[in-house]
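step=encode ok
step=design start
structure_in=
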């Protein structure tokens, strides 16, 4: 079967007006959430989908990599303003990557290149206030669902970079999730995250039960079908502990979920410092590009611009 005859992922499941939602979440810091969102965002944009990344993390790593934070015009909206009623367009910027950094000695400014089909809602430190605010105003927690309900644009998919907790802020992001949407946990196999994955499943189940107990409206159904095993050993970087984690994850989750390998790669570690996704500086066959291409296909995002 040729690529173009594969079924395209339905990016408006059930005929709804807002795009498919996809979030990386695991209750562990430093576990490839942002790396995976950045790689998937660029991969899907290159495949012809119209993608918007929402940076929910107060650390703003995704905003930094996509150059959506520095040099924001004064007063430009962030995700915090969006949560408080600002318009989506006023809180979005085109994703960019850094081509040449500013050189104050030579008097030159930074040069950027825009990434087609990809926009970013920049993160904000102020989101730390959200939990306190929503304790005072219960309606605030529904802001993202309201944004979804009122959306009239033509985006295909919204990718959410979430921080590593199920705070009220993160729950507000997950409220509109339906069964067709996906929460994708990335776990670094070099770390202790196998246990954190178990905790993530439990916390999501609790969240679902709490939110849906009294709900006659749409249910919140954050669904996990795919799990990413990130930083897997390679011939050039053998790691017997990593191999054991991969085997153990396969034994625990392999029957119920699709597991994907993202090989250990130094190039992916450079995204943050370079303020550019691997696609902008890695060879086109770099391991992470290959691996996230496979993941994009497994998630159902057939390439709409096959070479
Ligand atoms: N496939 C990989 N190979 C090697 N290193 C990786 C890989 N994926 C991610 N990393 C590295 O792991 C570290 C954590 O990644 P990342 O920042 O994406 O995690 P995170 O879950 O978003 O962290 P945080 O909780 O701080 O938001 C980074 O240094 C990143 O470069
Ligand atoms: Mg992150």
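sequence_out=
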């Amino acid at each position: 079967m040729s690529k173009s005859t594969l079924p395209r992922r339905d990016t408006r499941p059930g005929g709804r007006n807002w795009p498919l939602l996809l979030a990386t979440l695991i209750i562990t810091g430093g576990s490839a959430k942002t790396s995976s969102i950045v790689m998937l965002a660029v991969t899907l944009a290159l495949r012809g989908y119209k993608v918007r990344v929402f940076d929910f993390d107060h650390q703003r790593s995704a905003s930094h990599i996509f150059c959506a934070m520095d040099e924001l015009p004064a007063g430009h909206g962030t995700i915090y303003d969006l949560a408080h009623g600002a318009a989506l367009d006023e809180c979005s910027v085109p994703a960019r990557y850094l081509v040449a950094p500013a050189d104050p000695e030579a008097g030159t400014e930074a040069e950027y290149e825009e990434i087609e089909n990809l926009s970013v809602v920049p993160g904000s430190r102020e989101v730390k206030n959200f939990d306190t605010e929503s304790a005072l105003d219960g309606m605030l927690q529904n802001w993202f669902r309201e944004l979804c309900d009122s959306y009239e644009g033509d985006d295909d998919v919204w990718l959410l970079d979430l921080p590593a907790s199920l705070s009220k802020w993160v729950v507000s992001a997950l409220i509109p999730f339906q069964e067709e949407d996906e929460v994708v946990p990335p776990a670094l196999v070099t770390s202790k995250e196998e246990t954190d994955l178990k905790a993530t499943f439990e916390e999501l189940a609790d969240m679902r039960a709490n939110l849906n107990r009294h709900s006659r409206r749409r249910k919140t159904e954050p669904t996990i079908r795919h799990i990413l095993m990130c930083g897997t050993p390679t011939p050039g970087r053998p790691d017997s502990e990593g191999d054991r984690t991969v085997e153990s994850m396969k034994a625990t989750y392999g029957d119920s979920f699709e597991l994907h390998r993202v090989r250990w790669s130094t190039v992916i570690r450079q995204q943050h410092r370079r303020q550019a996704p691997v696609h902008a500086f890695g060879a086109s066959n770099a391991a992470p590009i290959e691996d996230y291409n496979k993941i994009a296909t497994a998630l159902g995002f057939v390439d709409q611009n096959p070479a």
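step=design ok
step=annotate ok -> The chain has one domain: 17-298.
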